[in-house]
Each structure stands twice: as C-alpha cells, then as structure tokens.
Design brief:
By secondary structure, this protein is α+β, with helices and mostly antiparallel strands. Helices cover about 20% and strands about 30% of the residues. The chain is globular, with a radius of gyration of 21 Å.
C-alpha cells in the first residue's frame, strides 16, 4: 500500500508558482519552477531560494548529550562550541556510512542533528538504539522533523538580502555556525551553511512561519535577481562543488575512507575513552587507504556533449576501471561533468585515455581534481 507523500508548509505556494513537483524520499518537493539552468546560474551569480523542509531534524538533549553523540557518530562532537556546526557521519559497526550529517550545538547540552531526508528515520532509529548502549546515556533523542521548516537562501547576494530582514550579526556569523535571531519578525535559527558551493544561509523555523519568511525573502531579493529554485539545480550546484550525495557517492558499502572523507573520522576523542560505533572497522579502513588505496573519488569532464549518469562504467584501454556516481551537464563549465570512483592507478588528474561507456560508446573524459568549481572568497 503506497502512502501519500508528505507536504511541506510551502506546498501551496510552490504550486501557485507553477513548480514542477516530484516525489523525493516520500516528500512532494519542487524539482524546478522554470529553467533548471536559469535557477543554477541565479545561485552562482545572484541568489536562489530553496525549500528544504524535507531534511530530518533530530534534537539530542541532556547531561550526556555530547557523550551519546561522540559514541554514535564518527566526529569529535565535544569540540563543537555553542553556536557552531560540524559536518560528520554516522556509520555502521562495519564502518559503512549510514548517512552524512550536520550537527549544530544550540546550547550547552542541546544539539540538533540534521540528516538527509532519505535517511532521517534510519538515523533517528540508530541514535535511539545507541542511546541505550553501555548501560544507557543520560540523554534524550527527539524526532523534530515536524517542528521545523527549512528555507535556504544561497548565492553571492544572499547576505545583503537577509540583512534587510534580520538584526542578527550576519557579518560575524562564520561558515558552519548558527545563531538564534528573527527573520521577517519570526524566530529562526540562522545557519551559515549550504549545499551549493556558494555563500548562503539555512533558516530553521516553525512551519507556520514558513510562508511569511519565504514571501519576505522573495520581496527583499527581487531587485537583485533572487528566484525560487528546485532540487534539480541543487543537484548540479553540489556536483560542481564536489559535494557528495548520499546514495551516490556515499553508501553503506563504503567507509568514509573509501569516499576520500577520512578526515571526518576522529580517533582521538575526549569522551568515552575514544570509543565509538564502528571504530575498529574504521581503523582497519584507514590502514587500507594508506597502504592499498581502494578506488578514489575523482572528477570527470567530458570532451564531447553526452552526459554520463550514475552507474555508467568508466573504462581505459577497454577495461572497466571505475563507475560514475553522479553526472550532469555543468552550466558553469558548459560541458558534462561527473563524479566517479576509479582505480587508484588511474585517479591522478590529467590521466589520459579515460572514457565513460555511454550505451556502448566509450566517450572521452578528462580526470580532474575535485571540486569542479570553487567560489572566489
């Protein structure tokens, strides 16, 4: 029996704007409003407005909240200051990635874990289960998915747009930090985070305030070219910025070290005597990555026009050397790009003779270092 998709607080507004809607992780979400390319370019050059209310917010509170998070996640959460955020992962006992996350420290003993929409229930269940490990932690795990709407404004014009609607100190707000404030007169957590490769903000607020804030941002941003943006351009923006997407670059079959993201794993933790779920497997994965690197995540840029897609084989001299994880036309580069895992021997930028098998034809590609695009600070 199929269940009806979940709707965000902005659903009626998206439809009034003529959005093309799509099912994403059980939510009805805007894919695009007009041209994907125009939306992508707006974020790179001006500003774009996104509804990200499908993301999964989980609050962890209590005297041992940080001990629980240090046990459950691979990062060192005890070093996150109040008002700061940390990119991290939650792994299985065998080191496989369950999800990549952002953890915000809201107060001394209150943290918000933001999971991907497709994994929110899995992450919630894992945190609840891990809270009972080792005799139990004095901490509460709360499902706050319905407590928040999430609106993102991304792009070079976003600070100027948001400044018109808040008295929060945006200039003092660092990347990967969040502070409580008001936006358009309503309370919000204002975070300087995003998934586009641009400067921007993510605003966590009550669902009943979402329409008011969206409308205020739309009006404030109209003179500088802000437009509403869907999930389709969010995908091409994060691909250009070399940011991994769960289910593509990250899966339970890969450890963070396999994904080239071993830096998020902290073996030196100040709590729990450094023990955490998956530690033993991850120590072995770290050794393997040092001595016999597995496939490496690389960028591929097309010499032709054909677009590679996830699952296509990467080939060299007629032999399969890897697999595409994400591919799309790049509006910024003006040619198709892809991320792919390829054998370490062929992963060096500039490697010649590499192709992608696109329906039986080996289309030529150049191996490049990630990211494809980096904004000028």
């Amino acid at each position: 029996m199929s269940t009806a998709p979940r709707l965000t607080a902005l659903d009626a507004l998206h439809r009034s704007l003529g959005a093309t809607m799509t099912d994403f992780a059980g939510w009805d979400m805007p894919l695009r409003y007009g041209s994907e390319r125009d939306e992508h370019v707006a974020v790179r050059t001006k500003a774009g407005l996104f509804d990200l209310s499908h993301m999964g917010e989980i609050t962890v509170t209590g005297p041992q909240a940080v001990e629980l998070l240090d046990h459950a996640l691979v990062g060192n959460i005890s070093t996150v200051g109040v008002g700061r955020a940390r990119y991290t992962m939650i792994c299985q006992e065998d080191g496989g990635i369950l999800d990549d996350l952002i953890v915000y420290r809201l107060q001394d003993t209150e943290y918000m874990v933001v999971a991907n929409a497709s994994n929110a229930q899995i992450v919630l269940d894992a945190l609840v289960a891990r809270a009972a490990d080792r005799g139990g932690f004095d901490a509460e795990v709360r499902d706050d998915r319905d407590a928040y709407a999430l609106i993102a404004v991304q792009g070079p014009e976003s600070p100027g747009i948001l400044k018109q609607l808040t008295d929060a100190d945006l200039d003092g707000l660092k990347y990967y930090a969040g502070l409580p404030g008001t936006v358009a007169g309503v309370p919000a957590l204002i975070a300087r985070t995003g998934y586009t490769g641009e400067d921007g903000f993510e605003l966590f607020l009550k669902p009943e305030h979402a329409e008011r804030v969206w409308t205020a941002l739309t009006e404030a941003g109209a003179p500088v070219g802000l437009i509403p943006c869907g999930l389709s351009c969010r995908d091409t923006l994060r691909l250009e910025a070399g940011m991994p997407l769960y289910g593509h670059e990250l899966t339970t079959a890969l450890t963070p070290f396999d994904a080239g993201l071993g830096r998020v794993v902290k073996f030196e933790k100040t709590t729990n005597e450094g023990r955490f779920v998956g530690r033993e497997a991850l120590e072995k994965a770290a050794e393997r990555a040092e001595t016999a690197p597995p496939r490496k995540l690389v960028g591929l840029v097309a010499e032709g026009r054909r677009v590679p897609r996830a699952g296509f084989s990467v080939v060299k001299d007629g032999v399969v050397i890897g697999e595409v994880t994400s591919g799309a036309p790049s509006p910024t580069l003006g040619k198709p790009i892809a991320m792919a895992y390829v054998d370490a021997a062929h992963a060096a930028p500039g490697t010649q003779g590499v192709g992608v098998d696109i329906r039986g034809t080996h289309e030529p590609y150049e191996v490049v270092a990630l990211p494809f695009y980096k904004r000028q600070k």
